[in-house]
Amino acid sequence: MSYPVHFSVPAVVLALAMSAAPGWAQTPDTRKPRRQFVTVSYESFATEPLHFERFPLEDLVGAPVAAAQFKSYDYETRDGSVLIDVVNFTRRGHGAGISLYPFGASIGATLALRASVQDLPDIAVTFTGPSAPANYELTGARAYDIGAAIVVADHSRGWGLGSQAFVGGGRGRIRAATRTGDRLFAEGGGGISSGPFGLELSVKFAWNHLTDPVDHHFITVPVALRGTLSF
Question: Which of 225, 123, 100, 130 is nearest to 174 (CA)?
Answer without folding.
Answer: 123
